[in-house]
Amino acid sequence: MRHDWTVKEIAAIYTEPLPDLIFRAQTVHRARHRPDQVQGCVLLSIKTGGCPEDCAYCPQSAHYKTGVNREGLVSVEEALTAAKNAKAQGATRFCMGAAWRDIPKGEQFDQVLAMVRGVRALGMEACCTLGMLTDEQAQALAEAGLTAYNHNLDTSAEFYGEIISTRTYQDRLTTLDRVRRAGVTVCCGGIIGMGESRTERYRLLRELSSLNPHPESVPVNMLVRVEGTPLAHAKEEDPLELVRMIATARILMPASMVRLSAGRLSLSDEAQALCFLAGANSIFMGDKLLTTPNPEANEDRRLFEKLGMSLSHATV
Ligand code: SAM
Ligand code: DTB
Ligand code: SF4
Questions:
Q1: Side-chain-side CA neighbours of residue 63 (13 Å)
Q2: CB of 149 closer than 6 angstroms to any ligand 1 atom
């Protein structure tokens, strides 16, 4: 396991002829993962919209008019009903996202802890993405049994300022460190298609692969362009760039779960197949991500059948 990949090395991998890149990624992938199985995860937005941050990609930022309705924290019961449905669909991981800058103290946090305990009691992995947190909150989440905390670096440190002005890259790294020290696994990745150059992507990959240990989970998102956000009219990303990004992440971080995350709705079956060949071994299932649409369950069943692939079984 290497944590010292250089931008030059990463660039050389990312730009290899596609057949060589895929072969290399497959070789790394097969040494540690089943090539015919992907983990199904389901997302639930437990607190929606009105976020004080100004992330240029995000439909939930209060800075933009996107038509996302603000909703307060859902009840524990509502969250657990969604988790049970997710389990029945074959998901083994349930991810709860809140449009918070940081986790509020008090009753709302206690409610989230109850959700985490409830999801774990169903025998599923529980993941939360709730913004910044304190050491005490990280510890409480760990004690509730939280499997993973999602907190993305999103892009390179250099490009970050073009996308978000209300917090720093260092804030992100500090949160990741708190999660790690509390003993919760780290889910950390990024987004392509925000107008960044390939070099910015190499730098993001260097940042992710320099974390020691590597994030156990690396979501690779393709920007979902939402009307009202500053990136609504960003240039459409070439799916082959997503394939290269996934393959490179797989090669740099061999043991991690690489998650083909937002953006699947704009990918053909063939493009998704290439993502799996490149080493992606997880998807979000269900017709909604947090606020934007995602392929329907029967679409994914049809895809897996065509590809001769299946969902992996519970590991917890
Ligand atoms: N507020 C918390 C935070 O920012 O860490 C958690 C929720 S936030 C919505 C989780 C992640 O979703 C972001 O870090 C970003 O990577 C991803 N995301 C948000 N909007 C997106 C979009 N339009 N397209 C792709 N990914 C998006
Ligand atoms: C991640 O990297 N992607 C997921 C999950 N982590 C929380 C979220 C994608 C959100 C896409 C925009 C939306 O649906 O609001
Ligand atoms: Fe808020 Fe997270 Fe969206 Fe940024 S990405 S605006 S922090 S919900």
A1: 16
A2: no
Residue whose CA lies nearest to ligand 1 atom number 3: 131
Q: Residue 283 and residue 273: Cα distance in Å, rounded?
A: 12
Tokens linked to 238: 């070439």
Kindly list the structural domains of the chain, giving each domain's residue range(s) and its CATH number in brackets, ordered by start: 7-303 (3.20.20.70)
Å from CA of 58 to ligand 1 middle: 6
226 Cα nearest atom in ligand 2: 12
Which residues, in sequence order, are CB contacts of 64 under 8 Å at separation 6+? Answer: 228, 229, 230
Confidence bin at 133 (pLDDT 50/70/90): very high
- Give 151's contacts (C-beta < 8 A, 6+ positions apart): 129, 131, 172, 175, 176, 179, 186, 187, 188
Is 172 close to ligand 1, i.e. is its CB under 6 Å away?
Answer: no
pTM reported for the whole predicted model? 0.97
Give nearest CA residue, ligand 2 atom 2. Answer: 219
Provide the mean pLDDT of the chain: 97
